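Input:
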Amino acid sequence: MNDSARRTLFFFFAAILAGALVAALRHLPSFGDYQGPYGDVILSGCIPQRHTPQGVAAVTFDYRGFDTLGEEFILFTAVAGVLLLLRQQQCERQEKPRDCELGRAIPATSSAVLAAGLLMFPAALLLGCSLVLHGHLTPGGGFQGGVLLATAFYFVYLSSDYRDLTRFTPDHLLDYLEVTGATTFALGATLPLVLNRPFMLNLLPLGKTGSLFSAGFLPLFNCSVGVEVGAGFLLLIAAFLKQVIVIRRESDQ
Amino acid sequence: MDPFAPLPVLLPLIGAALVALLEKFHQRHRRLDLATVAITLAVIACDLELLLRCSSATLVYWFGDWHPVGGFALGIAFAIDPAGAALALLAAVLTLCGLMFSWHYFKAIGTFYHSLMLLFLASMGGFCLTGDLFNMFVFFELMGVAAYALTGYRIEDTGPLEGGLNFSVMNSIGAFMVLLGIGILYSRTGGLNLAWVGARVAERPVDAAVACAFMLLAIGFLVKAAVVPFHFWLPDAHAVAPTPASVLFSGIMVELGLYAVARIYWTIFSGSIPGGTAQTLLLAAGLTTALVGGIMAFLQRHLKRLLAYSTVSHSGLMLSAIALFDPVSLGGCLIYLAGHGLIKGGLFISSGIILYHFHSVDEETLRGAGTRLKLVGAVFCLQALALAGLPPFGTFAGKAMIEARAAELGLHFIAPIFLVASSLTGAAVLRSGLTVFYGIGTPNCLSAPAPAKGDHESRETSGKEHRTPLMMLLPLLLLVLLALAVGLLPSLPEKSLQAAARVCDQRGYQALVLDGKFALLVPAPLPKRADLIKGVLPAGLAVVLAAAALFGLPLPDVLLRRLKSLLRPVLWTLRRIHSGYIGDYVTWFVIGAAVMVLVAATSRLL
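Output:
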């Protein structure tokens, strides 16, 4: 197919697909006309059953926690896949990090950028920790908080240098943390199985609604996901940067 | 509740994380190999146990002990019936064979190969056993992510990266369709459990939204199943993936897409969409796929591409069986699925052995090169005939059941199309086997000009290569023996009919999952055993076609020239359509999806 034929065909049939879908979707309940039982059951159940005011966290880590375990491992797999694809090839070697733009002096980091970085790093770190720890009380949780944790370290790179980032985040430590995060969730969910109860049963004490240590497994699962997501994203950032800054083909001297 | 139920997913998930860590600190292959094989063996044991336990009554396992409240399924359930458990078992057996093959494999370490194989295994197990729509999607995604990474494993070449990219783009688009379908069903029914959704959908007459939801789900899963016109990614990906991954892709992953279509149809839609337009659409897609895949397989000289196209063809064949929307043909399809998966896995392992010895999978380059590999050559040609449906392999038993049932239903055109498709794929494989291992015949006018040559393949392995290592032969022989066993076990047709009847029993499924009531089901009576002549026919035709390809047709020159000029435009068009450009693939996808959704929205599939 040449370009114009492909484009014509694509847009013609995409319009048909969109039209048919829109026609079909008109048969759905209209906005605000909620019909399903799920929401009502969870909202009326999450405080008495799970001692948490956060219905979303109760769904993701308890009622439908098995899905979240799967999602967590999707992230784990994706990180492993990226690291596999970005690994150093035999025809490649590592060099000292340097600016590839030849004939240009590396500008010194301005103090304004440095100050912004110094300000943002602890703020992002703190906010990330707070989101993870309070995931079962307020909106947020392990996935969101974990991304923020990784972002905090990204500020280090943005406001200073690649070498500073690697000093902060050694690869081995990140590997450990990522695996620990993933396995803590899985092993925590397996614990009831060892005690001859159903897998994923929330058997820790549920505590007082609204306190930090409540809702049983939820804070632990949030923390483990936070650690896994944070470490995973840092591994990804490190791998991407390494590919651009450190790894060179043997031929490009 | 059965404590074994979550283990086929749980063991490989935790194992994958731990193996990833082990790989960082002990840079030794053997320990990783041993750990991975041990976990896979444990999964096989669990799957077997589950298969035995669910034979009398479907096992329902509620995660987190969230049993249904007042008939509403709050949590996620595994609903394990014999069909799902048997597929999970097949996935685990194929994983074991792939891992055994890779015993002498992979120079590079620190590449997460073992972790990815275990994650792949976990995702397939979960996909087979789950009774929840969204959970199915989660495992569908996990399966995809692991598979994309495995496809691109050999990053030194461009082929694997392109194949992995095409694979991930097409399958992600398919996943969007699935998600859209799930969204529609959720907004209509307010739940995600298959039994619950099915019960709510059956309450009202089907409208355009529900019909579209079925089509969207089917389209998404048919992308994975590589059905025309969503099949383009498959040859690109299967041809370049490392051998153990190809074994899993063709042996079970593609078939799981078909399984998902059957599962959602029977649990959700069978009450409200009785056949009709949906059947016509799926049957047409299946039969077209069977023919296109067969012809394209015959036109290849790159051995792994050839096998990949034959997978496309057989996937179409199995979709046709499912599209009859009939328990008996579904039972035949289950047997066929197992028989084909084992044979195809064995063929990919054979091609891996060829690659191990000669660093090439090109039929013409390797002409006669494999003469000293006597055992592999003989097994390869036997598998080619088994692929065509030679008795007593599992492929014969399954196909005979499907064809007999189709004839009973008055669909007499199915058997001849099956005959053509299976003999074409069998002939293609047989031709390349005879060429590579016996050096018979002359370069073939149909496959010789194929663009993909498969000659300069980079090595997958290291070490000395004058003998095939035992650890490569073992999985090959194991797979052939298992494929024979699937065809020979006298109780298997009855068992698979029972399994299929259980899948198709929508009311029984709902009563069991939502209310915990189990009613014994009487499966359809066993069809009479098909006569062996029917099985010899496609295998014989395959031999004739292979011979024609190798030696030319015994026709006068004038007729031959006429035949060639007739065939050339058809073959040229087919080759042009399979262009390798992802933009074309997406365009074909949109065309197919638009037609299917339009038909669904206008006819409501009645």
